[in-house]
Write a structure and sequence with these properties.
It is built from eight helices and no strands. Helix 2 runs antiparallel to helix 3, helix 2 packs across helix 4 and helix 6 crosses helix 8. By secondary structure, it is mainly alpha-helical.
């Protein structure tokens, strides 16, 4: 059975095939996982080029450990998120003091039903305000908030990525959300947000 991007094999099965010398499995796994890792790194670092470097380094590390992968100990995607998150944290520490200026990357306009100019400007203002507020959060809160609310990971998945307990994830995301709300509080009307939303 030829492997393609729509393969129903699990990430772990594909990694095992790659470890056995199947390059097509590596291609499928790369197509499946790289966009998610790139998205996470882009949101954490705010720099597309750095995010690409992190995604590439994380995937290289995955290929290196493939022969030694211990089935059933962790999900491949969770392991990869953890590696990418750690690589991002290392880069952020090296450039401490620099904000997450393009945390959400280049905005892609929908091809159909584009919003009007005013709505696009207001959305751009909202994203800029959120990026600025995210940059002010401590690293661990920012990581937890990005993984939970922007990447859509569950608390147990975030706990595995950050190597902390679920309760710690809940605490970090709650504190991060409160801090974001506080940072954005005086700008709600300016950003077109209702008081109850």
């Amino acid at each position: 059975m030829p492997l393609d991007a729509d393969s129903e094999l699990t990430d772990e099965a594909l990694l095992a095939l790659f470890a056995g010398g199947n390059r097509a499995a590596a291609r499928v796994l790369t197509l499946r996982l790289t966009p998610r890792v790139l998205s996470l790194a882009g949101r954490m670092l705010g720099d597309r080029s750095e995010a690409e470097d992190v995604a590439q380094e994380a995937m290289l590390r995955l290929w290196k450990i493939a022969p030694d992968w211990r089935a059933g100990e962790a999900q491949v995607s969770t392991w990869l998120y953890r590696v990418a998150s750690n690589l991002c944290t290392d880069r952020l520490r090296r450039r401490r003091g620099v904000g997450l200026d393009d945390a959400f990357g280049e905005g892609v306009e929908p091809e159909d039903e584009q919003p009007g100019a005013e709505a696009r400007l207001q959305e751009a203002d909202r994203m800029a305000a959120l990026k600025s507020a995210l940059a002010e959060l401590p690293e661990r809160q920012r990581t937890a908030v990005v993984l939970r609310h922007l990447e859509g990971l569950s608390n147990p998945e975030i706990a595995a990525v950050m190597e902390i307990g679920v309760e710690a994830v809940e605490s970090l995301t709650a504190r991060g959300k409160r801090a974001l709300a506080s940072l954005l509080k005086g700008r709600r009307a300016e950003l077109g947000l209702s008081d109850d939303g």
